[in-house]
Amino acid sequence: MNKVPAGGLGKAASWRRERSHFILLMLIPAIVLLTGLILVPFLVGFGLSFTDYILSLPPARFAGFDNYLTLLSTPEFWDSLRVTLIFTVSSVALQTAIGLGLAILLHEETKAVPALRAIYLLPMAVTPIAAVFTFRMMFNPGLGVFNHILVSLGLPPQDWLGAGNMALFSLVLVDTWQHTPFILLIIAGGLASLPADPFEAAKIDGATPWQTFRLVTMPLLKPFLAIALLFRSIDAFKTFDIIYVLTSGGPGTSTTTLNMYAYKQAIEFVSLGYGSSIAIVMLIIITIVTQLFLRRSRLLTVAES
Amino acid sequence: MAKKKKALSLGVVLRRVILWGFAAWCLFPIYWLVNMSLKQPVDAVARPPTFIFMPTLQNYIEVLQDPRVIGYMMNSLIIALSATFFGLLIGAPAAYVLARHRFRGDSKIAFWILATRFTPPIAMLIPFFVIFYNLGLLGTHAGLIVAHIGINLAMIVWILRGFFQDLPRDLEEAAFIDGAGRFTSFRKVILPLALPGIAAVGILTFLSSWNEFLFSMVLGGNDVMTVPVGIYAYIGFEQIEWGKLSAAATLMLAPVLIFILLFQRQLVRGLTLGAVK
């Protein structure tokens, strides 16, 4: 809206002044709040990570890079990083494969699409604690419905949450239940918004459905896939509710992700300084991954359109 | 990629089986939760678990008469409604300005808003805990409301901005030419037009606060327990309480289910962060 009203420079200047007053007044409350609730806490956390602050054990002292050095030399850190990567990569890969396939099917479907979409929306909208609690009942070795189904199919019952690798798999399963719809809906939305021309051209050129999919659909879908992957990877990386309620990081440390490790150190052991350094390392990892992604996929321009 | 009629039938059947099979998988845990909530204690711990049984509302009656549960519900409502109200009040003007005006630093603001979505909650939770501890805000409603605004404000601004961008500019410009000030045209022209979008974001914020667990648990402590925290506190007693806990959890889902039925389209857009319009 850059039209300058007629009436000369004086009026133009006052118009500009009025405009910037407006922008400022509208933005100030949000900026103050975002500063107070996000920037200040971030700086406090960053500062804490250089102290040996433990709640109710005053005074906190400046500890330089001690926390970070301790962190990098602790096997628990590398172990939780490994668990986090396994959890994140397998969850996101599984969800992307299922979500992409279903989105393509849903795009071709003609009947009851709104009903299907409403149902697909449920796992990502319902209260996570309620859903995770339900999974905990269903995973119960003796009384749970999952083992009941397995046994009636003639399969051996599983100790879903009791054994290390199985527990990690179960967490991936619950995460996949909860978040596949996110990828599915983004890609379905993407498919619906694709231009028709390239598909008609492919048809005229006699492309097979597979060729059309690989050479026309996929390249056009890429930005949507990129958004879905980036958001999902970062959210999987920070998963808390599912892990905390189902395994609390156990058995042993077999499902202790970086986030669980940070939570245990900072909140359960109130080592707020050390916990902060883990959180900062997580933030650094997320920043690096996001930057790589943004550079490769021009994500922001898509998100803004 | 439509094929010919004859070849379709098998493909269509297969497609519908897969799509509805996935729908069943999405619904199953919710079905099972409701199923458990209608069971008597004997049926809840039956081996093997039963699908068919004499349903009872006993669990709901007990839960709704439990003053603790009523307390959790009240806490959740107060916190979610306040966070939504203040979040929209502060977020909507900012979103409008970011949608309509180009000015120095606007892309930076948008980027930072998105960046807060990426920050691990624990990185915010620790400083919140320390700050609240020192200000005496731990275990207070005000503290949790403030925290929930902090968690959601960036999302509110981001999604509302998308809604404002979709509104035609003509009406504001017309109001402008008629001599209305910028504030007036925002209040009288834009806000009414954006109401569906604002309602959708309001619902999303409400749900996000209603569903939130980590901050509520750590910052609310034992003094201000929301429903998710309350449910979690009783999971320890599992088997004996399964029926009652399931009833409480089902009640928790009620507003979520109502909103999904009423506002499906807007929620899809919001839950996918504006990527799907």
Please write the string of helix (H) and strand (E) elements of chain A. Answer: HHHHHHHHHHHHH
Q: What is the fourth-level CATH superfamily of chain A?
A: MetI-like
Q: The CATH topology of chain A is what?
A: MetI-like fold
**Rg of chain A, Å, rounded:** 25 Å
Overall body shape of chain B: globular
- Helix and strand element order of chain B: HHHHHHHHHHHHH
Structural class of chain A: mainly alpha
Q: Give the oligomeric state of the chains in this entry, treating copies of one chain as homo and distinct chains as hetero.
A: heterodimer
Descriptive notes:
The complex is a heterodimer of chains A (305) and B (277). Chain A is an all-alpha fold. Chain A has a single domain (75-297), classed as MetI-like fold. Chain A has 13 helices and no strands. The longest helix of chain A is centred in the first third of the chain and has 41 residues, at 8-48. Chain A is flat, with a radius of gyration of 25 Å. Chain A starts with 7 loop residues before the first helix and ends with a helix. The model of chain A is unreliable at 1-5 and 300-305 (pLDDT under 50). With 277 residues, chain B is mostly helical. Chain B has one domain: MetI-like fold (Orthogonal Bundle), CATH 1.10.3720.10. Helices cover 79% and strands 0% of the residues of chain B. Chain B is built from 13 helices and no strands. Chain B has helices at 5-37, 41-44, 58-65, 67-100, 106-118, 121-135, 141-166, 170-177, 182-211, 214-220, 227-235, 238-262, 264-271. The interface between A and B is large, with 105 and 104 residues. Chain B: Keywords: Cell membrane, Membrane, Sugar transport, Transmembrane, Transmembrane helix, Transport. Chain B: Pfam families: BPD_transp_1 (PF00528).
